[in-house]
Each structure stands twice: as C-alpha cells, then as structure tokens.
Amino acid sequence: MNSIDWSATAAGFAVGAGLIIAIGAQNAHVIRAGLRRRNLFAVATICILCDVVLIAAGAGGLGAFIAARPWLSSAAAWGGAAFLVVYGAMAVRALLNPPDFNWDASEDTGHGLAAAIATTLSVSLLNPHVYLDTVVLLGGIAAQYETASRLWFAAGAMLASVIWFYAIGYGAFLAAPMMRTGMAQRLLDGLVALIMFTVAGWLIAGELA
Description:
mainly alpha, globular, 8 helices
C-alpha cells in the first residue's frame, strides 16, 4: 500500500455517511448527550470507536460471511426492528412523562459517566441495526475491492463516522440553549419516536417483501 486510494476512500466516506446520517438509536443518543451537555465527548467517542471496530470487522470479511448466509442478515434485520421499536417506545414514554433534565449541567462534571458509557455501549453494540449497517452493508460493498483498496474504503467510512458523531453531538451542544423548554424536549422525543418506528417498519417491510 504505497499511496492513498482516493477513489476507494471517497466511496467509503460516501457510503458510510449515507448509512449513519439517517437518524438511528446511536444518533439520537449522541444528540441527547449534546443537549444535556453531559459526558458528550465520551458518548460520541465511544460511538465512533464501536463503529470503527465494526467497520473493520465488516471490511475484514465478516460482512461477506454474513451476506452469504441470508438467515443471519434476516436475523439482524428483525432484531434491529425490535430494538428500534423498543427505543421508540422509550421516546414515547419520555414524551408523555418528560424527565426533569438539568440543562445547565456541564459536560466536564463527570456526572453519571459510568452510566453514560454503559448506555452508549448498549445502544452501539446491542442494537442489531448497527451490525446490519456497519458490518453487513458496508462489509459487503468493501468486499468488492482488492485488499489494499478495501482498507482505504474502510478508512473513508470510519472518517465519516468520526466527523458525523462529533458534528451532531457538538451541534446539539451549541443548540442546547434553544432547547431548554419542555415543549422543545417533547418535540425531540416525538421526532425520535417517529423516526425509530419508521425505520423499524422499513426493516420489517424489507423482510416481508
């Protein structure tokens, strides 16, 4: 690998961005951390590291392995749909019974850091939809490249993840003063629930088609 394969890197970045920009459980979790201004750097970084590991696994051959076994892809789709329905239901519950967030909390207080890390790991690694995107879909596309180019494709996808999670997290951090009202929080919860249920429905429809 003597030089950067810009074509493969750009393709990986575009595909990776296309998959992660659609709001999922990870994105909603990072946005919430930004709005609460609590443990944002840790939350966004853990999401990125999880994506990096899963993208590497997918590009390394796990994606092609799963793609060759349709029942595994189907299991990931159904599991992802179930996870998103549960996450959407949690957003509905928060919408109907909004918690009392401390919007003035500073990120560097370390308040609830262990809980934030545990929740972020669960959202990132116990969500089958994440595996469907980063391992199966990205890995399947990466498998079409030669070994050297495949590495650059994966690097491009990882770069997209780094930029995206920090961007939405710190974008939400900056927008927090405008989201201090209960109505704004309810609107966010309602939007998250709608998107979670929509993506879950899309996954189910794809399996029933």
